[in-house]
Design a protein that fits this description.
Oligomer: single chain
Radius of gyration: 19 Å
Keywords: Sigma factor, Transcription, Transcription regulation
Family: Belongs to the sigma-70 factor family. ECF subfamily.
Order of helices and strands: HHHHHHHHHH
Protein name: Sigma-70 family RNA polymerase sigma factor
Organism: Mesorhizobium humile
Helix content: over 70%
Number of helices: 10
Shape: elongated
Largest sheet: none
Length: 188
């Protein structure tokens, strides 16, 4: 079996035995997806770059304990989510206080101007960003990372029924937001 057709699980088995080439192959296959996911979670490309690299260091450490109960890509996104949440918690300590924030001039367009300037896809992305974190995350994993409901449950460590409920409410809120912004169709 050559490297191009070798399964992710077989590569994790090789990593568990100390094979650095297998880590490089998994990195090439999954780094972009992990990076994009973390950018969406953190809003920071620099932070996402650091976290994505840490995910593959964690892969190196945890490979012997990988039990194969989920896809490797799902496992890596779960590690990425945990690391992103940890880093965001640490970062909160460094945020500016309310008084300093009030001194920063608001040069943002009004919601009406923003909606007029953006096409439907960009407006939708902004609406997704405005969702509560739990709804935004399930939408992001499903539609931007192609994860199934079961895989989302594994990444977030929540029951499938909870994923479905969050997805329902997220879609409902997005449909309402699109309608309020003047778009005829709700969910595309």
């Amino acid at each position: 079996m050559n490297a191009a057709t070798e399964t992710d699980r077989a590569l994790v088995d090789r990593v568990a035995k100390g094979d650095r080439a297998a880590v490089r192959l998994l990195f090439m296959r999954h780094h972009a997806r992990v990076y994009r996911f973390v950018v969406r979670q953190t809003g920071s490309e620099m932070m996402a770059d650091d976290i994505a690299n840490e995910v593959f260091l964690e892969l190196w450490k945890q490979a012997p304990g990988f039990e194969g109960r989920s896809e490797v890509s799902t496992w890596l996104l779960g590690i990425a989510r945990f690391k992103a949440l940890s880093m965001l918690r640490k970062k909160k300590e460094d945020w500016i206080d309310d008084d300093d924030a009030a001194q920063v001039p608001d040069s943002a367009d009004t919601p009406e101007v923003v909606t007029m300037k953006e096409d439907k896809a960009a407006a939708l992305r902004r609406m997704i960003d405005a969702l509560p974190e739990e709804h935004r995350t399930v939408i992001d994993l499903a539609y931007y990372h192609g994860q199934s409901v079961t895989e989302i449950g594994e990444v977030l460590d929540i029951p499938v029924a909870t994923v479905k409920t969050r997805m329902f409410y997220a879609r409902k809120k997005l449909g309402e937001a699109l309608k309020a912004a003047g778009y005829d169709r709700g969910w595309p």
